DNA sequence: AATATAAATGAATATTCATTTATTTATAAA
DNA sequence: TTTATAAATAAATGAATATTCATTTATATT
């Protein structure tokens, strides 16, 4: 029995993300993907049931890897500032290591795949996140607030900085590079906002 | 000479946004748009050069309207808290009045139209924004910081709240509705972060 | 009322799309 | 070495795509 070529499988995943990030979902097609991988388009249908199955599988796989990277060394019983710093560190690290993934996840979030994607990979992740928030509220480290408010203040600035970094140049026309210094400067502002 | 029907032109714009928001760019087509408007697809090519021209024109037009709504009653010489509150108010108002536009702009930002879109409608807008920041820094109302940091802390939480609101339910599973109370609670945290 | 002209259209075009079919190729097990 | 089986492919399928063409329709100007 002929065995499946793992390099080819890997290549398909990588090129799929590359193409989608470059051209958006509207410019992505099975034929283009096959051509970019120098394989037959029929081979894609051996690996995946159909186009949606391909996209969702690639997305979920990467989503799980990101979720793992995010909770690395993190414990919901940590103190507020210590825990939040760890989460910023993890996200920053992941984003620097995987510069295209942020765009990819942004595209998924604003596409018709949103529901299935979010439903899938966030399962365990969101539990640990809200447990942390409840802990630090109960310990009186931050004021009580809805989860959505906490999340928006605690993480939205970070994601926005990464987006600025990806775009290279921001609204001022000057180039922008997200450095360690800028990251922790922003982190300190966020802590100041949330800390009692 | 026959005159162009303005209702029809308006209908095309409105339906285009509706369809794109509902199905994403990947599910949008000229034929579907024509059918949704009950007009001939050839008519679309009287109004616009091609598909890209249509999408970009609709996007830019809406972008300019949003930019106008954002600086309504705002002056870059305002004091920090007063000016920022006005901007939050304007954005909140616009988003409540145009619930689909946020999704639409998010889709544009993560699509292949990103560059042309951002380049277009932000021209005047970004000048007034960075002038405001420089003023409040010079007056010593906030610490000096890169524009990207200021923007990310000042506005990213707001945009994130609106996104949670649009999605209806967030990570906790409970439904989330962005109310005045939640908005200004978040605003106060952001002010706390930035104010000296 | 006649004319000129752009709007609007229905039907056609060529191209690209996702998916399938028939066939060949590689390899694990016999 | 033979056999069985899944991998891999080239080519083909019909449906959907963006765009164009030939024609008709409405209206402002003469």
Automatic annotation (TrEMBL), chains A, B:
- Keyword annotations of the record: DNA-binding
Q: Which residues bind DNA?
A: 29-48
Gene3D superfamilies, alphabetized: Tetracycline Repressor, domain 2
Per the database record, which ranges form the HTH tetR-type domain?
Answer: 6-66
**Signal peptide from the UniProt entry:** none
A GO MF term: DNA binding
Q: InterPro entries annotated for this entry?
A: Homeodomain-like_sf, HTH-type_Tx_Regulator, HTH_TetR
User: One Pfam annotation, family name?
Assistant: TetR_N
**PANTHER family hit by this protein:** ACREF/ENVCD OPERON REPRESSOR-RELATED (PTHR43479), ACREF_ENVCD OPERON REPRESSOR-RELATED (PTHR43479:SF11)
Q: What is this protein called?
A: AcrR family transcriptional regulator
* Organism this protein belongs to: Mucilaginibacter phyllosphaerae
């Amino acid at each position: 029995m002929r065995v499946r070529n793992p390099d080819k499988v890997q290549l398909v995943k990588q090129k799929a993300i590359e193409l989608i990030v470059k051209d958006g979902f509207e410019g992505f097609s099975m034929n283009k993907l096959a051509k970019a991988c120098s394989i037959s388009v029929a081979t894609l249908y051996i690996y995946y049931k159909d186009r949606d199955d391909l996209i969702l599988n690639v997305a979920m796989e990467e989503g799980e890897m990101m979720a793992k990277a995010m909770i690395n060394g993190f414990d919901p019983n940590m103190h507020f500032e210590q825990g939040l710093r760890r989460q910023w560190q993890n996200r920053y690290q992941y984003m620097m290591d995987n510069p295209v993934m942020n765009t990819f996840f942004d595209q998924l979030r604003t596409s018709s795949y949103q529901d299935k994607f979010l439903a899938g990979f966030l399962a365990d992740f969101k539990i640990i996140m809200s447990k942390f928030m409840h802990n630090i509220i109960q310990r009186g480290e931050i004021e009580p607030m809805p989860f959505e408010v906490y999340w928006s203040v605690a993480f939205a600035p970070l994601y926005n900085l990464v987006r600025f970094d990806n775009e290279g140049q921001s609204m001022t026309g000057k180039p922008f590079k997200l450095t360690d210094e800028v990251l922790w400067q922003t982190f300190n502002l966020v802590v100041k906002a949330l800390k009692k």
